[in-house]
Specification:
CATH architecture of chain A: 3-Layer(aba) Sandwich
Low-confidence stretches of chain B: 497-506
Number of strands of chain A: 11
Strand order of the largest sheet of chain A: 1-2-3-5-4-6-7-10-11
Number of domains of chain B: 3
Helix content of chain A: 25-40%
Helix content of chain B: 40-55%
Order of helices and strands of chain A: EEEEHEHEHEHEEHHEHEH
Largest interface: A-B, 25 and 20 residues
Largest sheet of chain A: 9 strands, mixed
Oligomer: heterodimer
Structural class of chain A: alpha/beta
Mean pLDDT of chain A: 90
Distance between the termini of chain B: 54 Å
Number of helices of chain B: 13
CATH topology of the largest domain in chain B: Beta-Lactamase
CATH class of the largest domain in chain B: Alpha Beta
Low-confidence stretches of chain A: 1-20
Number of strands of chain B: 13
CATH superfamily of the largest domain in chain B: PAS domain
CATH architecture of the largest domain in chain B: 2-Layer Sandwich
Chain lengths: ~290, ~500
Amino acid sequence: MPNRAVRMIALLTALVAPTGVGAAPVELALVAAGVKPGAMVARAEFRPGDPDKPVVLLLHGFLQTHDFPIIHQLAEGLASEGYGVLAPTLTLGVTHRRQSLACEAVHTHDMDGATAEISAWIDWLKALDPKAIVLVGHSLGSTNLLAYAAGRPDPAVRKFIGISIIEGIWNRKDVAREHEIARLRERIRAGDRAPASYPFSFCKTFRAAPDSLLSYLEWTPDRILKTASRTRAPFVFIMGGRDERLGPDWLDRLRATRARVRVIEGANHFMDGAYEFDLLDHLVRELRATPR
Amino acid sequence: MKPLSIGRLSLLFLLAASLLVTGLGGYFWLELARADRHIREHERAAAEAEIRDAVTDITRRVRQIGQALTDWDETRQQLVFSEYYSLWRDERARDTGMIPAEVRAVALYDRTGAILNGSAGPEPMPLTLPTPTTRVELVHDGGDWLYLFQPVHADPGHAILLGYLGLKYDFLVGLRQARAFRYADPDSLAIDPAAGGAIHPDRLPTVLRHQVRTTPYRDTFIDLLADSQRRLILAILASMLVAGWLLHHLLARPLRRLSARIDTLRSTDGGGADANLDMAPLPVLELENVRRSFNDNQARLRELRLRLERGNLDLRDQALRDPLTGVFNRRAFDQDCHALARDRRAGDTALMLFDCDRFKTINDNHGHAVGDLVIRAIADTLQSSLRAGDRLYRIGGDEFASVLRDTDPEHARAVAERCLRRIGEHDFSAWGMPEPASLSIGIAVSENETTDPYTLLNRADRAMYTAKSAGGGAIVFHHQDMDVRSAPPRPRPEPTAESAQVIEQG
């Protein structure tokens, strides 16, 4: 899948239509190159909201699902504020994915595949004729949203909010990220598709095909900052003041972009439920300020 | 029915007890065998139950493994993008720990039933999905593999079929590891070769051959019981020996001795009345009571016999006594004379003959009653004047005699003079007699001539006649001159049978 980028070419059907209040499971059959029709289904959870308020697409972090605690809590909080919330789970190449994908699994997914799925879900949301769509991502999910925004984002998307935006961290000290990127490109050119294990992100052994890892490595911090500076869509970053995963100058560099940066002092990477309500407050403020 | 001796009865008792012990031993042995058989049957049933449960566990476990793999996201990942299927099959699936070592192979099949990538991997798996596509069965093809095939759906509602999962489970290895077998021997587990190629799990318990584990507890238990049985029988036999010994020494032998002693007494004919069961006290109370009762009866019999003998003696003594005076009568005199005549050891003998002077006059003047009193007084006086062993006989109305053995004439004279003096001293006046009675005493002494009493009696009679002729109240010894002028000798009586007996008895 990675080197023959799966392109979601059609939104076939919404298998479960959202009705009433409360979370409803949603399945989206995707059509992609090399995938038999109906063989790839993405799952999501949708909470309908006030039609006058923007609908939020809430995207999880690296290898997680929409059941990840912070995503679930934010979805519940936003829904309680009257916002419609769609929390999809990226398939990562696994139809009906229900579990967090293990680091040791054979990873074939890439940033482009995620961007295609985001696009498909936005199309699904647009079918509901919302007043506006706001994309909210957590951690690497924010990077996925940035990657979507870097392309030709749908005009219905009025705002991007990246929570704890971070690149896929390359944890190998003896090999520089750029050097590994070059080597992966060389392997791909040589037709070497053998997966290997890498210390990537929070995984000590991230077993991935070369194009899969490359797609994440290529989203370097610089690329994130540049993209954030270039995108025309309004971008807001909500960061934890004590996020240990970030580089020492990451907040300052973010502030240097066109994006607006909100910092919640004392907060970490929003993985443990702490500062959940502060985060929700910031989100709601940004949603209220969404341009129509 | 002929009564049996105590020895035979004891033997019969011991024989019966031995038969009883043998019977008990046989019964215990049968019970032991039955217990052993029961335990074996229980163990066999328990082993079969264990195997049934283990097969159920294994089947359930295989289904759980299959279900976990089917529900696994990465399985669905491979059925959509199978590029790294071999990596998933050979490494990833095992690295998760979802597949135990007994699962020798896993395989994924597409919706058409073709194995992914056309490769089964290092462990053979069917290249095409067998039909029906959902199954669990044991295939016996050089190994004992429990195959599981089941569909993999994309969605929880099973509306979207992605393909199929197959896994190959080493049934016997898994079975042996499934549980700690207590009764079935896991090393003996084997599939019956005649069971066929594909076996449904429901049939597995029936085609699984196994052996019941030899449990040390059962053998120990049986050995313990057998040992207890042997000890019990030995204890009973020892008790019987002790009982037999006690029976012999406390009952049989004393009873036999008692019986033999009684038989001996019975065979001695009359002497038994004098005899006791002079045995040591018997150890059994009842036997001792019998012995004492017997001795008591013997004592009573002996006393009765003594009384009878005493009565006989009294009767015989009365027959030899003079009823008026109580001294010996003529009959006794004759018996003693015959005995004396036969006694070769007899020494010098003096025969004294006493005659009351003028007794007829006393009778006439004072009556027969006084006469009797006079005779009794004379008898008493004479008896008291004789030596203790000398007998006094009344041999006539007023005539007494006494035989003094081992006596010389001087002693005879002294005795006669003592008699006369005491008669003279006796007071006869109470009976109206103005003067005492007097006696004429004739004495004949054998003096080595003859000890024939009757000869002596005749001689004494002549001497007494001489004394009486001289006026009475005198003592006269016999001498030869008297034989010429005196009266003819008294006739010698023939000894009677009674006297002969007395003589015989000495």
